[in-house]
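Lecture notes, continued. The same structure-token format from the folding unit now serves as the input rather than the output. Read the line below as a description of shape only.
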């Protein structure tokens, strides 16, 4: 089976080609690390040298000028609707669903978009959404069809210089992941924009040259109105958000014995049914210390892929020094969601893999999947009511069996079962603490918070945690532990895609250095579109290599999986040099691999690849004169 792409990169490529040629084939060689204990793993600190990925936050000066948006205004949210929310057992609700009549349908949304030309020959338009009294807005973008090269941006009119940017293909890819998980509801078809911390949020859409705005299938039928202040103030500022939880909570920054563990904990904000919620989650290490961002929280927080896709995390959300009542300047936000790997009500466990790389200094917590002794000392680290990180100190008193009796209530009984009963001697938990980890001796994760009746006025009342060992044996061991070092590939790597504005074509690479070179030095010509799929960086069973060649004379890169085609190109064109193997994929389905569809661009003679069903449908419906579909090129994976 052949796989070839010939990329004529336009004007910018003349400057970039010499630098890129030195980057090699984009593949990396790896070796399996020795596995740690199957049942207990120590923590591991994220080094500063780890690739942090590509920031979605851009400066307006590097982008097209902000267009004048059309305006959609929502009235104030009735206080009576939120008065009873945010309390009780379970995730703390901080945002409420609101319908948007003006952009409910695709036709209404397109009427709101007033297009103006861009310097590159494309078009750009924007819609401003506002809600009186809101502390933030998450826009529910339903996207079914966007042209390749489309870009979405989100920002506030109060600060148009700082912009969140994401490619259209990434949005479609995330919605497709929801569909692949079986969610075809409105939630599954929705991409939730990050909260910009304002009562107004602007959605901007830029289309590439030649794209017809009439072919866009996009609407915003709902927003999530954030009615609590979730903004992250600077260290010099105070906010009613800071230290608003109950008075008996203990500032985690006062307990240096847990300095590592507290760096594993993140405050979570996610959206379900257009309502937004707070919980707490914990980063977990695996037996290889691979740096894979596995994330543990509660099933009653996140139990669906669409909820995982909406996840935002705040890291180091705590006081810089003991009882300072201010927020650390090291606090870092991540907004790109996660993949849901496992969810079970039996232990109230939700196990995710974050799409973003955790910030340097974050700790991948250790865990113990062995049997725990009753009366063991335990520590809880959590964000009650979304507050700065708090710590609770207590002991594990017994096992018990817990059963949900409603959406916010449950009952526990007996001295055996899948949950721990915990009694606190200092501190307590509240709504927002849900999903936080229980650490034995303040060191190893052994459970996740389900709920309980503990409070400042009833510290002796128990809290209940799902048993990590039960969830581990049921499923988590498949990701976290290996008795022997794995053979063959140790993990998949992303293959990145760029849209070349000058050449009206796409460029592909798995090389991080090359990715960053194009972003940092050639951003005016190359629009970064994110990771389009994952492949293996080293050889393995049932994998085949994709070769990368460069033609310096014709200023193009060539990719092929065929040794015959590889050798023929080198013989036909003396200026073609083999740079190496770009990545490894599969020639047939299986092992969870998905097809990559190949198109010939009749105008440029280049090839285009996509795994997105929505992107494929768009091209077939609207660009058939330009692109010729040639079937499945090869098989790759949707994630790591």
């Amino acid at each position: 089976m052949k796989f070839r792409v010939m990329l004529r990169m336009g004007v910018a490529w003349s400057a970039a080609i010499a630098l890129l040629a030195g980057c090699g084939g984009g593949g990396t060689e790896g070796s399996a690390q020795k596995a740690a204990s199957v049942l207990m793993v120590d923590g591991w600190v994220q080094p500063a040298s780890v690739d942090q990925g590509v920031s979605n936050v851009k400066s307006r000066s590097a982008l097209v000028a902000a267009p004048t948006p059309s305006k959609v205004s929502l009235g104030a949210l009735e206080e009576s609707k939120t008065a009873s929310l945010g309390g009780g057992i379970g995730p703390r609700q901080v945002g409420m669903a609101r319908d948007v009549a003006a952009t409910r349908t695709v036709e209404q949304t397109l009427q709101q978009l007033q297009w103006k030309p861009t310097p590159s020959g494309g078009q750009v338009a924007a819609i401003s959404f506002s809600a009186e009294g809101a502390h933030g807005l998450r826009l529910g973008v339903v996207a079914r069809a966007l042209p390749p090269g489309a870009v979405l941006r989100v920002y506030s009119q109060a600060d148009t210089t700082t912009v969140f940017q994401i490619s259209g293909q990434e949005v479609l890819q995330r919605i497709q992941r929801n569909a692949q998980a079986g969610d075809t509801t409105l939630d599954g078809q929705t991409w939730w924009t990050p909260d910009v911390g304002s009562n107004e949020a602007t959605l901007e859409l830029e289309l590439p040259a030649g794209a017809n705005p009439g072919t866009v299938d996009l609407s915003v039928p709902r927003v999530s109105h954030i009615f609590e202040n979730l903004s992250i103030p600077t260290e010099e500022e105070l906010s009613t958000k800071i230290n608003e939880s109950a008075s008996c909570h203990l500032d985690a920054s006062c307990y240096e014995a847990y300095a590592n563990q507290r760096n594993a904990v993140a405050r979570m904000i996610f959206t379900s049914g257009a309502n937004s919620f707070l919980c707490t989650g914990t980063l977990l290490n695996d037996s290889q210390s691979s740096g894979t961002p596995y994330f543990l929280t509660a099933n009653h927080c996140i139990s669906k892929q669409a909820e995982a896709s909406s996840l935002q995390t705040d890291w180091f959300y705590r006081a810089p020094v003991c009882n300072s009542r201010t927020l650390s300047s090291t606090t870092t936000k991540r907004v790109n969601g996660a993949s849901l790997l496992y969810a079970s009500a039996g232990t109230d466990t939700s196990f995710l893999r974050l799409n973003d790389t955790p910030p340097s200094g974050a700790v991948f917590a250790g865990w113990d999947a062995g049997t725990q002794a009753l009366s063991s000392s335990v520590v809880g680290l959590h964000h009650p009511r979304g507050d700065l990180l708090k710590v609770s100190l207590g002991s594990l008193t017994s096992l018990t069996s817990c059963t949900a009796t409603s959406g916010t209530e449950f009952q526990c009984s007996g001295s055996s079962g899948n949950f721990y009963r915990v009694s606190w001697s200092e501190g307590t938990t509240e709504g927002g603490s849900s999903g936080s980890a229980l650490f034995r001796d303040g060191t190893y994760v052994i459970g996740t918070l389900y709920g309980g009746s503990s409070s400042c006025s009833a510290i002796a009342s128990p809290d209940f945690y799902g048993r990590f060992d039960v969830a581990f044996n049921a499923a988590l061991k498949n990701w976290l532990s290996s008795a022997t070092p794995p053979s063959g590939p140790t993990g998949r790597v992303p293959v990145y895609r760029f849209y070349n504005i000058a050449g009206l074509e796409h460029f592909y690479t798995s090389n991080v250095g090359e990715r960053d070179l194009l972003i940092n030095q050639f951003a005016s010509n190359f629009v970064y579109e994110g990771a389009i799929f994952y492949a293996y960086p080293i050889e393995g069973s049932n994998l085949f290599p994709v070769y990368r060649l460069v033609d310096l004379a014709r200023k193009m890169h060539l990719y092929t999986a065929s040794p015959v085609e590889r050798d023929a190109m080198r013989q036909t064109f003396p200026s073609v040099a083999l740079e190496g193997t770009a990545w490894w994929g599969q020639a047939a389905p299986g092992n969870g691999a998905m097809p990559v569809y190949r198109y010939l661009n009749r105008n440029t003679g280049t090839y285009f690849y996509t795994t997105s069903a929505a992107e494929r449908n768009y091209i077939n419906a609207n660009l058939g004169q330009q692109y010729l579909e040639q079937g499945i090129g090869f098989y790759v994976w949707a994630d790591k």
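Point for the exam: Confidence is low (pLDDT under 50) at residues 1-14, 26-37, 232-241, 484-489.
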